[in-house]
Amino acid sequence: MNAKIERVNSDIEKVKAKISEFQAKLRELERQKTEFENAEIVDAVRGMNISLADLAAMMKKNAAKSSAATASGATTSGQNVPKSTTPNNENDKEDN
């Protein structure tokens, strides 16, 4: 086989291996992100100081509102409370 073709085939295999590594890394990072989001949700719910029965009732009521809004043609993000605001790092810096 031609040396140029062999070199290109070798490069192709190296790139495919890197792609596989990056895909595995991406899956792991997405898993970690989901885990952290779930922990944040659990902490928020625990901080509400509400019984499990009341929490379930509140979630059912929210789900009914969302499905009614969707059925009427309105779109919803599933979030019915204001997003928390995080201070922008640019604003935290002192002017020198």
Short key terms for the protein model shown above:
mainly alpha; 3 helices
Secondary-structure class: mainly alpha
Low-confidence stretches: 89-96
What is the CA-CA span between the terminal residues? 65 Å
Q: What is the beta-strand fraction?
A: under 5%
**Dominant shape:** elongated
Give the overall average pLDDT.
Answer: 82
Number of strands: 0
Order of helices and strands: HHH
Number of helices: 3
* Helical amount: over 70%
Radius of gyration over C-alpha positions, nearest whole angstrom: 24 Å
Largest sheet: none
Structure description:
The chain is mainly α and 96 residues long. It has a domain at 1-65. 72% of the residues lie in helices and 0% in strands. Mean pLDDT is 82; it is low at 89-96.
List the topology elements.
Blueprint: H1 3-47, H2 52-71, H3 89-92
Short description:
With 96 residues, this protein is mainly α.
